[in-house]
Amino acid sequence: MSVTPFRLPVIAKLRREAIEALIAKGLRVDGKRDPATPRSVTVELGVIERAEGSALVKLGNTQVMAGVKMDVGAPFRDTPDQGVLTVHAEFVPLASPLFEPGPPDENAIELARVVDRSLREVGAVDLGELVIRSGEKVWVVWVDLYILDHGGNLFDASMLAAMAALLNARIPYYEEIETGEVVVDRSKPPLGALPIRRRVVTVTVAKIGRHLAVDPDFEEESVADVRLVVALDDGGRIVGLQKSGEGAITREEARRAIALARQAAPVYFKALEEAATSSKADGS
Amino acid sequence: MKAAHGRLISEEGLRHDGRRPDEHRPVKMEVGVLSNADGSAMVEFGRTKVLAAVYGPREPPQRFMLLPDRAILRVRYHMAPFSTSDRKSPAPSRREVELSKVIREALEPVVISELYPRTAIDVFVEVLQADGGTRTAGVTAASLALADAGIPMRALVAGVAVGKVDGVLVLDVDEVEDSAGEADLPVAGAPDLGLITLLQLNGVLSEEEFEQALDMAWRAIEDLVRQEKEVLRRKYQGVSRA
To answer: Is the CB of residue B204 less than 8 Å away from at least one CB of chain A?
Structure first.
């Protein structure tokens, strides 16, 4: 059952008015950007050696780590010639006073499903290349999102972390033994990169009062009526949308939000590209 | 199962069930279908059948949930085990958790919750038969059930999903079109307020297609809300004559 949030951060009314007044003037509460510009973003790859792929994304004060692990498993019955991609998100209690230990709540589930759909709908990972034996053995790719510090806008940071960790992932070495079993051997060098066909980012646009702004920080998010998460691929297509939050938007605001998202998306694509290039230079 | 379906748009531009691209399936709406609930409604979009019930404003079982300045909304979207072709486990799936959230958030903007502080308004949506469009039929049924329960609302809401099959935008996708289609855009809104209250996109659309799809959805939502008003008016006219 989904319940109206009853444990919310307390934001003074004056602060709320200040945030809104700033955005009306084309400024932000952190003082360094306009409504179409995300906070500073860094993407670091290969932060967890045990994982097949990993990334740490810092977006302002928000930190999200993503780890990719791969197992050999059975394909879904209706897609015998495709590997399996699964995204999960953990709102780790150390990340925010608002997070409690326990199974994923509706916010964690929504986040994981939005990231999952955005990757899936464009075929970001070519799952057809992840078949070991048709109908029997395929690679199961787990993307686990770990929210480490909640400074607002978990959607964009998590999408970036997932995409970056997938770009960083290497398929482990495996052998088919006589019984037909497939044995993974991580002591041997990995086989190669995952087949990534498209890059996807999300840009979250918050509606604060009557104004729109991308990449809300924690305070902005707390006073926002509603957010529209816009997923865009590297071909400029809209590959997903999710309205999230108690409020509503007009059709005109939906169109303007998509235009703002398009304006901001290159910042995220650039951060991904820089991470991918620098990790190639390191030979990792 | 994408490869299993052939062309979904015929030479004449008609859909697999004979509909035009902008044609809704037959819609049925009925209110007051349950005796215990404070308000209830059944909505059918073709073979999709959804039942909604509203209880409240009432005291919730857990008082720590209460808010001092408004009622909380508690919404559950749930599919009956027999509603799908393979039996659906009655345990809530991740999909149902997400849809409960987006349906709640589609209703929050229209319920005047500040009139009932320290109470809960419960909305239960049960999908009895699923053939595509269950969340949008669910929002439509919930809107009717809330009105039927006499909960003060700023406006009525309704929902519809626009899909893209064989490159053509189609209104009110059914399950065949949804599973084979290239995009699914569920939209719900309150036309009387000019507000979109639910918006999701699963799939790929150009900006131009998005605008066309949103316009197509909006016209259908306006029509659905007209039908909601008609159904409610009929019921209350019946009451005044009795």
So the answer is: yes
For the stretch B68-100, pLDDT in tens is 999 999 999 999 999 999 999 999 999 999 999
The tokens for A88 are 């999960």
Tell me the domain boundaries of chain A. Answer: 23-281
Closest-CA residue of A relative to B206 is: A237
- With CB atoms and an 8 Å threshold, state whether B105 touches A240: no
Total length of chain A: 284
Residue B131 in tokens: 């053939």
The answer to whether the Cβ–Cβ distance between A109 and B98 falls below 8 Å is yes
Set of chain B residues whose Cβ sits within 8 Å of the Cβ of A121? 183, 202-204
Residues in CB range of A13: below 8 A, 6 or more apart: none
Of all residues in chain A, the one with the smallest CA distance to B92 is: A1
The answer to whether the peptide bond before residue B57 is cis (omega within 30 degrees of 0) is yes
Question: For all residues of chain A together, what is the average pLDDT?
Answer: 94
| Domains detected in chain B | 16-236 (3.30.230.70)
pLDDT band at A148 (very low <50, low <70, confident <90, very high): very high
CATH number, domain A23-281, options 1.10.1040.10, 3.10.20.90, 3.30.230.10, 3.30.230.70: 3.30.230.70
Alpha carbon distance A245, A230 (integer Å): 14
A75, A82, A83, A128, B32 from A134: Cα distances, Å? 8, 8, 10, 10, 52
Cα–Cα distance measured from residue A133 to residue A153, given in angstroms and rounded to the nearest whole number: 40
Query: Which ipTM did the prediction report?
Result: 0.90
**Alpha-carbon distances of B85 from A129, A203, B9, B89, B161, rounded to whole Å:** 30, 36, 24, 12, 21
Q: Distance between CA B199 and CA B191 in Å, rounded?
A: 14
Amino acid letter, A21 = A
Of A112, A121, A248, the CB nearest to B204: A121
Contact across the interface for A113 and B200, Cβ inside 8 Å? no
B87 by Cβ neighbours in 10 Å (0-12 / 13-18 / 19+) ranks as: exposed
Chain A contact present for B210, CB below 8 A: yes
